[in-house]
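Our consortium's second objective concerns turning raw sequence data into structural hypotheses that experimental partners can test. To show how far this objective has progressed, the report includes one record in full. It was chosen at random from the queue rather than selected for favorable results. The single chain below, 995 residues long, was entered without modification.
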Amino acid sequence: MPTAPHPQSTDELYEALQENRRRPYGRPRTVTAEELVDAAERFEEPVPLVRALLELQEAYTYGSEPRKSPVVFARLLTLFDEQPDVFDERLRHTLFWRFKWVANALRALPEIPLNSLRQWLTEMRDRYEKAGLGLQPYYGQAYQLAAHIGEDTALAYELWAGRTRTRLSDCEACEICERALYHLAAGDDERALRVWEPVLAGKESCQEEPARSFSYALLPLLRAGRTDEARELHLAGYRGCRRNPSMSGEVGRHLEFCALTGNEARGLELLAENRSLFDEVDSPREQFDFLTGVEVLLRRVEHLGHGELPAAGFAGRAWTVTGLCAEVRERADDLAARFDARNGTTAHTDRRGVRLDRAPLLDALELTLRTRTLDDAAPAAPAAAPAARTAPAVPESLPELIVRARELDEQGHPDARACWARLRTLVAARDYTHPDDPAVGPLVRLRADLLDDEAGRAREKDEFADAAALHEEAAGLYEDAGQPGHAALARACALLATAELPAQDTGTAQDSGADDTQAQGTGGAEAKAAALTAAHASMVRLHEETPGLTPYQEARLLRLRATVLGMRLQTSGSEEHIAPVLAEVDLLHTFATRHGVDAQIAGALLLRATTYAMSGDLPAALTETDGALDRLKAHGPAWHLPRTLALRGRLQLGLRNAQAAYTDLAEGLRLAADWPADTVDTSRLHSELAGACLHLGRPDEALRHLTRSAELDLRGGSRFDAYCTYSNAAQLSLDLGRVEDCIALLDSVLAEPDVTAGEVDDRLVAQLRLTRARALHAGDDLKAATAEFVALAAESAGWDDDPGSHAMIAAETAVLLGESGEFGRAREAADQALAAHAKEPRPEQLSNCLRELARLQAERQGPDGLAGARAFLADAGRIADEARATGYEAHGRPLDAALAYEHGRVNAYAGEYEDALTALEKALALLGEPGQDQGHAGEWAECVRLAGAVEGIYLERPAPALTRLDAAVSRLTALGHTEVAEPLTSLAARLRDEE
């Protein structure tokens, strides 16, 4: 199926070529380039064919198909020999430049004889000499051939590096990399890193750089102890080469880096992301580099005892680490042997051996915000308990195990779960025999116990319907076993679970057909409050009608009664519901104290504290929590301490005592490690610690807690919560300027299987992608950011229930397209944003977008872009008029003043200086005189500065401009805004110098 239209004219052909250049390198772009060559051959003019062939050679070169690149170049060289006049200066330059591409392609193919490589270099030298071109590029290729073969490179290096660069020399960044690699091969890390400095610092770059240099510099940086730099270059460099067939060798070096820094799990994750490279890379040299890096990683994983883990590999079968490692080893050994046979050396085998034999350079280096281990990489890895927690001792004797499970359950002890889990396994066995022991009771009671435990776990997962059904079934079995007290408890739990069901699940929801969402929410809360009231009444009756309750059972029933009323208060927020909760809590506390039921004494104290907190009386809640902590420290149970400290931490945050909150939450987290993972909501503790850290001005620590919280949720199955927390962590990292951290985190999260399978809420995934697109933009990857924004704008266009979000996404998309110089597409995106804005206004965001587009178009296109820029400003003007009519006030700059200023700037860019000055004076009038506010003074000063520049420099009226500037400087200085006044002072000095 064709991937490109059939151009009917050369103009259409050139447009198609331009469109194809926007695509990433790979088969789709290459196939389109091949079709465009076919189309170009139908035209009588040779120039379109030359351009199409050049595009095709580029697609082959950067699509890692070196066998085809020389064939295309041969056609170009024939055209040049036959019709040299067809090649203008630019085409001629490109042709001679690409002699180097062919030399590089031939080196990458071990089936090409060494003599043929040398003959090609001779051809290059002869052609350069005949054309009167300098030979430094030729000597550069001669050096690279010597380095590839493994010959003594000293002379070849001097002949190249000692020559003056020419217009056809490789770019500065590429040559820096080659010089650094020369010193690296000689074992001089320090000198290599010095040579690399301009590239590593971002001062020199090209299409392949700095990603290529970054990949080679990783290990030298580690050996030099510059681990932070190595980490940064790994994140930035990997992003520059991932999934790129022509940079698969660089990907291999990043995998090797992961293997040598204790990041094997990340290495496997990156390998999965680049699985396409196993089959897409057609360059033997790139395959060799990539597969060697893969093998370094897989050997390390296997050495650590994880050879059974799944690994992404060659298409057609499922691989384990061990199986893939053997396959990769065989293929890479074969490639090394082929290159060495062609070159007559052992260089490739030797280089491969050095990489494979290299020992890890660090035990652990935290590369990303999402630190994972090989245990996490195992399929369906269970949520592990904290490392400090040892597994509870479970009795071997079956009767002892049953009795112990019930004792622990009565105490509310966390270790009861382990006992019930063991019993569930034993009872499910076909050969299970129930002990004939009066202390144990009949099998029907044990089955009831197990059902009741299962119901409790279902309720913890918010599976309320299942929980209610299981509790009811357990109650029936308890009655059969002659345990009316336990039956009553199970029925009370069923009542609570049923009351927690959403309204539509209880069968009581009314089909009112109302469209008012807020009314529906209010009605839902009222219905739930009514259900909780009814549940409480039923519990009271159940309590009164059940004889022979033990103190433990009666305390549990009182606790459930207080809990259901507490939930009603939480649901309704009604002041009249406070007193009933406190009354029930008092009953529970009195009864539990009289009978020494310690777990329920603590429960009563916590319920009282949370009731005060829900009522808004935080000081009283804090006092009650202090009392609860004192009681727990003196009498236990100790497993309630982490939860109580967490409550006090939340209260301290509410009372704006962030340091006290941090202390409590950190201590709660420390104590939580003493208990099973499901005893305390450790994820929430980390999340709340993150909030405390932010209040204390410790954002980096907050970031660590957020990512830890998300990972715990993910392992525990709360995936939606996990992705929400990851979204917050990504946004925080972006706000902190940790752009690469943000991108790496989101790349990892977006690669999760349920995300890629479309099983996660599409709006949440869109938010993750939006943050990533903004991070790409902040990281100066305009092309990738624009592509993601365009995709998000297309998807959000279908969000009929949320046009406001589409308006903002489309607006941001328009700005990025404007930054890319694609003002036609930017206009289309802006129109989409305006249409969505009409449905759900976003005046400030849309105004900002339109003004920025106007500025970009006028700045880039000058007078030619004035009409388009003014059209954007006209739209912004209509938005300002609408906002004024509705009384909308912008959070930032006033829309009218900002618009007038932009009219001034746009007209100045386009050379319409009188119009610019008029607009700027209007902006000054709208802004008003400056006062003490620094922000307002800065806006006013910038407006004065631009007006002064337009008037004094471009309109050549320095006298009134100086009057304006001097008055403004005096005004600002008197107000204490001396720093704001400095640009005005500098401009005034310049105008006086020019008079």
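The partners drew two points from this record. The beta strands are 310-311, 319-320. The longest helix spans residues 517-545. Both points have been shared with the crystallography group to help prioritize constructs.
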